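Slide 14.
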Amino acid sequence: MKIVVDTSYLLPLIGLTHTNVQEDFLLNLLENTETIQIFYSTISIFELQAKGAKEAVNGNLDEQIVIQGIQTLCNEDVIVEIPFINSTFIT
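Slide 15: predicted structure.
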């Protein structure tokens, strides 16, 4: 099974949460990578940077956590990036 997660599900990687998403949702998915493939859009990297920067500037978040979370996502082989311009994934 293929699952595409949007930025809301990736927020815990930078130390934030979304009210409608369980904080451990992504971790639960990662425990089942033998039966599922996890994907995210390139645009999510931008959204994580923007949200993280806003919260860091407001003093609500350590910028190093944001950087580390995004680097972890980009270097993780289990969660696959879908280029923003790639429409073939949908078909």
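Speaker note: The mean pLDDT is 89.
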